[in-house]
Specification:
By secondary structure, this protein is of the alpha/beta class. The protein contains twelve helices and 13 strands. Strands 8-9-5-4-1-2-3-10 form an eight-stranded mixed beta sheet, with helices on both faces. The chain has a three-stranded antiparallel beta sheet with strand order 11-13-12. Helix 4 runs antiparallel to helix 7.
Length: 492
């Protein structure tokens, strides 16, 4: 029998927030696949696009021909390269991103959120990032049901929490347009799991305990999470849809999920109910004949057609991010190494991390954006040693200045360094209870036992700010306001 508290929804929260977990999954797959071109369908206000507009901190490893063997550092492209590629695992290098949405206001937000800073304006961050690769951004307005030739052969298409908003006719066009007409190498889809929705109420809770929105199509008696959802699939229904799409259009699919409630479910249903958001990563099959089969299938579907040169889509904004002029143009190894020595001497450091050197920007510019170039330069210099606490290339690797070069570091002078603690005179504080009255300086007069009065308290006080701190101290009053403060008055 349901207890009285069963008539209410259970608290279900996610950390990180569920939308961040979905975005994190998308970005992780993109990094793993080395994605450089992205179309975000149903892009909304452009949250994902804004992330993709962030500049990579360094370039991808240069071709082997750019880094000739020097006897000090291995080939970064070799299988036995002591894990140097690890530093690139979390870095994306997009060169073109596009967003498509049918909502005009959302499109305007996306256009603004992806706009580059005006020339000469800085981000205000402690470290002003450099951009090593150009980036093109396009924001489109239009329906997913129409084919836009600009999107054909794009590398990756993302649809985060989109398909559940599509009317039936547009949903039927989703796979033919995305997987058939555009046929990207990777397609990433997320959608809510109706199976998980049972987590919001107790097993024996009445139907009215669940808040939400009834199925607007009236095809089911389900209650959805959002008023605009046209459906919410169970885990089995999503699995079936993914399998059919993958087989029809020549893709392999990996299905998973994100989002587990922080709260413990007292009925132990978490494993059975699965994830809050279902995710699917489709990867195009490159077997012979699949390209022709996709094209023939698209041609046979009359519902998939271009409507005008741009498929009925309107290009609302185009942004161009330019790369730094030094990108791909590193200076000779010896000049980079000498710059490292100069920086260490300037900062009077005999040891610095790659992180400290790289994000000073001048070293990164000298390397043309190649982190491997810095490693080669250091390992090829007789006065520098690279410490590697880990096998993988890491920004925490340390650069040691040879003892033979320590004489280049100037000795600190008294002007450059702060005084020692015992050289600092501790000025007497008249409000320090630990100081006895006999220790009061003779030239300082403190008025004691002043008769309390409220006259003139709120009048403008005259204060001569040119007085020394001892004189000013005698004019300062500390503590709570005077008057009758009863228990009904509290400091808040």
């Amino acid at each position: 029998m349901c207890q009285s508290d069963c008539a209410q929804e259970l608290p279900v929260t996610f950390r990180p927030e569920l939308y961040l977990q979905r975005r994190g999954w998308v970005l992780d797959v993109m990094r793993r696949e080395g994605i450089t071109e992205v179309l975000d369908i149903g892009c909304g206000e452009g949250e994902l696009l804004s992330c993709l507009c962030n500049a990579a901190p360094w370039l991808a490893p240069p071709p082997a021909s750019v880094l000739p063997p020097n006897g000090h550092a291995p080939d970064p492209h070799s299988d036995a390269n002591d894990g140097r590629a690890e530093v690139h695992r979390d870095v994306l290098h997009p060169v073109k991103v596009a967003g498509l949405d049918i909502d005009r206001k959302e499109v305007e937000f996306a256009a603004e959120s992806t706009r580059p800073l005006p020339p000469g304006q800085t981000s205000g961050l402690w470290h002003e990032p450099l951009r090593w690769e150009p980036l093109e951004v396009e924001i489109w307005e239009g329906s997913l049901a129409h084919v836009n030739p600009e999107f054909v052969d794009i590398e990756c298409i993302v649809g985060m929490e989109v398909i559940e908003h599509l009317p039936e006719d547009v949903l039927q066009a989703f796979a033919p347009v995305v997987f058939g007409a555009y046929h990207p190498r990777v397609v990433l889809v997320t959608t809510p799991s109706y199976t998980f929705n049972a987590r919001f109420t107790a097993p024996d809770a009445p139907r009215e305990a669940r808040t939400g929105w009834p199925d607007p199509t009236r095809r089911t008696s389900r209650i959805f999470r959002h008023h605009d959802h046209k459906f919410e699939w169970t885990a089995k229904e999503f699995q079936d849809w993914c399998d059919v799409v993958a087989e029809d259009w020549g893709y392999d699919v990996d299905i998973g999920g994100v989002g587990k409630a922080q709260e413990i479910d007292e009925w132990g249903r978490d494993d059975a109910l699965g994830w809050a958001s279902q995710v699917a990563a489709f990867k195009r099959r490159e077997d012979a004949g699949w390209a022709e089969r996709r094209a023939a299938r698209v041609a046979s579907l009359g519902s998939v057609q271009e409507t005008g040169a741009k498929g009925g889509h309107i290009l609302r904004a185009t942004h161009q991010y330019t790369a730094h002029e030094a990108a791909h143009r590193p200076k000779p190894f010896h000049e980079v190494a000498d710059l490292v020595v100069d920086k260490m001497v300037h900062f009077r450091e005999t040891s610095m991390s790659l992180h400290e050197l790289w994000f000073g920007n001048d070293v990164a510019i000298a390397c043309g954006g190649y982190l491997e170039w810095l490693v080669h330069a250091i390992e090829g210099h007789s006065g520098l040693t690279l410490g590697k606490p880990s096998a993988d290339l890491s920004l925490q690797w340390t650069v040691e200045l040879s003892p033979n070069l320590h004489h280049l570091i100037p000795a600190e002078s008294s002007v450059d360094s702060p005084p020692d603690v015992d050289e600092i005179v501790d000025l007497w504080d008249p409000f320090d209870e630990d100081v006895v009255k006999d220790d009061i300086p003779a030239d300082l007069h403190v008025v004691e036992d002043v008769e309390e009065t409220t006259d003139g308290i709120w009048e403008e006080q005259s204060m001569d700010w040119d007085k020394d701190e001892h004189t000013l101290a005698a004019h300062i009053e500390w503590g709570a306001p005077q008057g009758d403060w009863t228990d009904n008055n509290e400091w808040t």
